[in-house]
C-alpha cells in the first residue's frame, strides 16, 4: 500500500530523525521551505515526469547535486535562517520520509 505525501507528516518525520537541538532552531515554515526547495529541484531536473517507470534507475537522485542546489537556494533566500550544514540531515530525513511512502 502506498501512502500519500502529507507535509505535516513530512515535517514531523524530519523532526523525529534529526538532532533535537537542530530541530529546535527552526520552525515548521523553515522546514516547509526546505521541502519546497527539494520539490523545485525535482521539477527542474525532470524528476516529476509521470512517464518515468518504477524500475527506471537512470534517474537516481544525486544527493550532492541536490545539496548544492539547496545551498544555492538557501543563500539566495535572505529570509531563511536555515544553514546548509543543518539542511543536509534534514534533506536526508526528508528523502527517507519519501522512501517510507512507497
Throw out a few tags for this protein:
globular; 5 helices; 102 residues; single chain; mainly alpha
Can you tell me about this structure?
With 102 residues, this protein is an all-alpha fold. The chain has helices at 7-16, 20-24, 28-44, 63-76, 84-100. Helix 3 packs across helix 4 (63-76) and helix 3 crosses helix 5 (84-100). The model has no long low-confidence stretch (mean pLDDT 90).
Q: In one word, what is the shape?
A: globular
Give the SSE order as H and E letters. HHHHH
* Class derived from helix and strand content: mainly alpha
Beta-strand portion reads under 5%
Largest sheet: none
Number of strands: 0
What is the CA-CA span between the terminal residues?
A: 7 Å
Number of helices: 5
The helical percent reads 55-70%
Mean pLDDT: 90
Assembly classification? single chain
Provide the low-confidence segments as ranges. Answer: none
Indicate the radius of gyration in whole angstroms: 14 Å
Secondary structure topology:
Blueprint: H1 7-16, H2 20-24, H3 28-44, H4 63-76, H5 84-100
Amino acid at each position: 500500500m502506498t501512502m500519500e505525501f502529507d507535509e505535516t507528516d513530512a515535517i514531523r518525520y524530519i523532526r523525529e530523525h534529526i538532532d533535537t537541538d537542530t530541530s529546535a532552531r527552526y520552525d515548521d515554515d523553515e522546514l516547509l521551505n526546505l521541502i519546497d526547495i527539494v520539490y523545485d529541484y525535482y521539477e527542474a531536473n525532470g524528476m516529476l515526469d509521470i512517464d518515468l517507470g518504477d524500475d527506471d534507475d537512470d534517474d537516481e537522485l544525486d544527493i550532492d547535486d541536490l545539496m548544492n542546489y539547496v545551498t544555492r537556494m538557501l543563500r539566495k533566500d535572505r529570509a531563511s535562517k536555515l544553514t546548509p550544514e543543518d539542511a543536509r540531515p534534514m534533506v536526508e530525513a526528508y528523502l527517507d520520509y519519501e522512501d517510507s511512502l512507497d
